[in-house]
Amino acid sequence: MIPQRSRGGEHDLGQRLLLAYVSLCTVEEGLRTALLARFGNYEVRLIEFTSPGRASGKPLWLELYDREFKSAFDCYAWSRLSKLDEAAAAAEQLIAKAKKLHGQTPQRSHALH
């Protein structure tokens, strides 16, 4: 499990979004992703579409991704880093949903023999 917040709350999540965005700059053209949080099979990812015409003019996305089914099932899109407060609030909601879904997933026992 990747820690979600420290005492600063949304402010720290905004900083994590910025750091994740900066890390995307080291990736080749196309679809760039950075992990913000993981709970079991559920990940909250920052995605940047670098191809023209992709993502309806909103190149930055947050998505809730299910690794087991290899599918995203919730997302938030925005076009400018100036909307960072809104993106941080959306990330907080997606992280809360990932935590909840992970808590509802039956835990598999991996006993060592």
Describe what you observe in this structure.
- The two termini are about 25 Å apart.
- About 30% of the residues lie in helices and about 30% in strands.
- The N terminus and C terminus are likely disordered.
- A hairpin with a 4-residue loop joins strand 3 and strand 4.
- The protein has one domain.
- It is an alpha+beta fold.
- Strands 1-2-3-4 form a four-stranded antiparallel β-sheet.
Give the topology.
Blueprint: H1 10-24, E1 31-39, E2 42-49, E3 60-66, E4 71-78, H2 84-104
Helix pairs in contact: 1-2
Any descriptors?
113 residues, 4-stranded antiparallel beta sheet, 2 helices, disordered N terminus
Structural class: alpha+beta
Strand content: 25-35%
Count of the separate structural domains = 1
Rounded radius of gyration (Å): 15 Å
Topology as a string of helices (H) and strands (E): HEEEEH
Shape: globular
Terminus-to-terminus distance:
25 Å
Number of helices: 2
Please tally the β strands and state the result. Answer: 4
Poorly predicted residue ranges: 1-8, 108-113
Biggest sheet character = 4 strands, antiparallel
Largest beta sheet: what is the strand line-up?
A: 1-2-3-4
Helical content band: 25-40%
Q: Provide the residue-averaged pLDDT.
A: 77
